[in-house]
Specification:
Strand content: 15-25%
CATH architecture of the largest domain: 2-Layer Sandwich
Largest sheet: 5 strands, mixed
Strand order of the largest sheet: 3-2-1-4-5
Number of strands: 10
Bound molecules: adenosine-5'-triphosphate, magnesium ion
Distance between the termini: 24 Å
Number of domains: 2
Structural class: alpha/beta
Length: about 350
């Protein structure tokens, strides 16, 4: 990328958010996100409906982003678009639109790893972690503990062996009949619940490795609800307040305890003083509370993105793309969508 070329247009369509952002020298000038509501009635993302909604939304969202930034396409220096991981049909919309836009305007194009976008969501804030730092990426499809040695250089310390933490939130919410996505609902109900009411399991919390597991916890909640006839009926909750709030708070606490303990241990073992928590579940209020108090006890600086940058957004993708472009990288027009793309 030529010096002075710094206005990046980023595109994110990996799942059920259509988002376009514009960054100038790494600062957000616009970040427009639309979440597709069409999936709510199915209790999960329907891939074909997601692709169709992206096709419908991509141009109006890009125009809205340009208007918010006060730019026209002529002002844009480069295009970044997410090419994986995600739903292939959804990825193809943003990736192909981005490639076509870059080609038609003769601009550099860079494909972005969505998970690298999550890692760099924290760099959209003024206060940035120092390298090396530990990054816990905790989202709908991932629970990864990453050692970020230097810019764009990662060592994977551990990951979930089964469900991602966000997936566990969503599945438990479904069992309780409190809606989709479940994370924000459980977070809300848990605020007035007792986190010590039920002792759900903390899988691998004391194990030597840095891997996670949430399927045992999910099954423990299932058996707890089944044995008490509290499983949702016709998508509606059977458990009522205050019991419902206690179940949410106890489940949430089990997830939070595991995430915080593993991350604390990784920071100690690697002698790292800066820790970032990113991805959709990093929006969780209890997770933020417990991480913050653990960090102050251990003299660790902890960083959370603002809520807008926790779940999927194009600003984080544009930032990661910008770093790659500054590093001299571009992607060919032949770049394909990679649904199971890894960060390392
Ligand atoms: N306040 C919250 N508490 C707990 N979980 C939350 C909260 N807000 C959002 N989530 C969870 O975050 C997840 C969505 O995050 P995100 O958009 O980063 O995931 P994704 O893009 O689908 O997956 P990935 O990034 O792994 O590909 C959902 O599982 C949702 O329930
Ligand atoms: Mg995501």
């Amino acid at each position: 990328m030529k010096p002075g070329m710094n206005k990046i247009l980023g595109i994110e369509t990996s799942c059920d958010e259509t988002s376009v952002a514009i960054l100038s020298e790494g600062r957000v000038c616009a970040n427009i996100i639309t979440s597709q509501i069409v999936h709510k009635e199915y209790g999960g993302v329907v891939p074909e409906l997601a692709s169709r909604a992206h096709v419908k939304m991509i141009v109006p969202i890009m125009n809205a982003a340009l208007a918010q930034a006060g730019f026209s396409l002529k002002d844009i220096d480069a295009i970044a678009a997410v090419y994986g991981p995600g739903l292939v049909g959804a990825l193809l919309v943003g990736l192909n639109y981005g490639k076509a836009l870059a080609w038609s305007r003769q601009l550099p194009f860079i494909g972005v790893n969505h998970m690298e976008g999550h890692v760099y969501s924290i760099f959209l804030e003024d206060e940035k972690p120092e390298y090396p730092f530990i990054c816990l990426t905790v989202s709908g499809g991932h629970t990864d503990l990453i050692y970020v040695k230097e810019p764009l250089t990662y060592e994977l310390l551990g990951r979930t062996r089964d469900d991602a933490a966000g997936e566990a939130f969503d599945k438990v919410a479904k069992m309780l009949g409190i809606g989709y996505p479940g994370g924000p609902e459980i977070d809300k109900l848990a605020r007035t619940g007792n986190p010590d009411a039920i002792n759900f399991p903390r899988s691998y919390a004391q194990a030597e490795h840095y891997d996670f597991s949430f399927s045992g916890l999910k099954t423990a909640v299932l058996y707890y609800l089944r044995d008490r006839n509290l499983l949702a009926r016709d998508g509606a909750p059977v458990a009522q307040s205050p019991e419902l709030n206690d179940i949410c708070a106890s489940f949430q606490q089990a997830v939070v305890d595991t995430l915080v303990e593993k991350t604390r241990r990784a920071a100690t073992d690697y002698d790292v003083k800066h820790v970032a928590i990113v991805g959709g579940v990093s929006a969780n209020s209890r997770l933020r509370e417990v991480f913050t108090s653990m960090a102050s006890r251990n003299n660790i600086h902890v960083y959370f993105p603002r809520l807008e940058y926790c779940t999927d957004n194009a600003a984080m993708a544009a930032y990661a793309g910008w770093l790659r472009l500054l590093n001299g990288e571009t992607s060919p027009a032949s770049l394909a969508a990679v649904p199971n793309l890894n960060i390392v």
